[in-house]
Amino acid sequence: xxxxxxxxxxxxxxxxxxxxxxxxxxxxxxxxxxxxxxxxxxxxxxxxxxxxxxxxxxxxxxxxxxxxxxxxxxxxxxxxxxxxxxxxxxxxxxxxxxxxxxxxxxxxxxxxxxxxxxxxxxxxxxxxxxxxxxxxxxxxxxxxxxxxxxxxxxxxxxxxxxxxxxxxxxxxxxxxxxxxxxxxxxxxxxxxxxxxxxxxxxxxxxxxxxxxxxxxxxxxxxxxxxxxxxxxxxxxxxxxxxxxxxxxxxxxxxxxxxxxxxxxxxxxxxxxxxxxxxxxxxxxxxxxxxxxxxxxxxxxxxxxxxxxxxxxxxxxxxxxxxx
Length: 323
Prior knowledge:
Oligomer: single chain
Helix content: over 70%
Number of domains: 1
């Protein structure tokens, strides 16, 4: 089998041009369609980034989880880097690219949640005090007539309704908020692609003889999805399907990085066997991986869709969707 180190002959074979087209065409199509599709989407509100979708869950709990996930992901990534003698060698793999992206997402999410909680606590301190006073008064006056109690309950419901209406009318998210949502959705698609490829393709067919307990306990091919799924259960962020374009950009950037690295002689082997361009079946592998982006992103989209569809039915008094 020839390698990129064999020289120009490797890069002049027909498979390279076909595979190059399979990389370029999705990228161009995503870049062309993205502005048109974005105009038809609902705007992202600032509160969507840090207010949970559970009415009785204080935003501080979401902040705490995101801070924990950030610390755990960063520690695991640092451990993986330090465990290899060459350090940054681990970033030859798409897995580490994806895990780094997940870590960056939680860094954004933690910072924006912290800012949101701080701003909300200062802006609504007086309203919160009034609400607490109202609830305390309700407890202290249990001996009131049933009609007055009913009115108080109605007023309490009106206060909650007003609260969520206020959230719904909040200003749109800024630049960093939109970046956070983009990274969130790109991470979701990349995580699904990473885990499905690893557990469904690499382990059974390519790494069967090399697979051992260390690869299981390492956890990168499971924790990335677990971290994001828990955040998805808690957060209230929309998941517009057109942002799949950024997932495509991310994967194409990784493949382009590999091609440039090999063309410059920085690497003589392929981290993933199906990226090798010397085989006559390489275009089929590249086509299969390009097509795999659609079901992988759709899988996470359906998870979010299912959450918004079934959680209001299962938890009608706790789950509140404001988006």
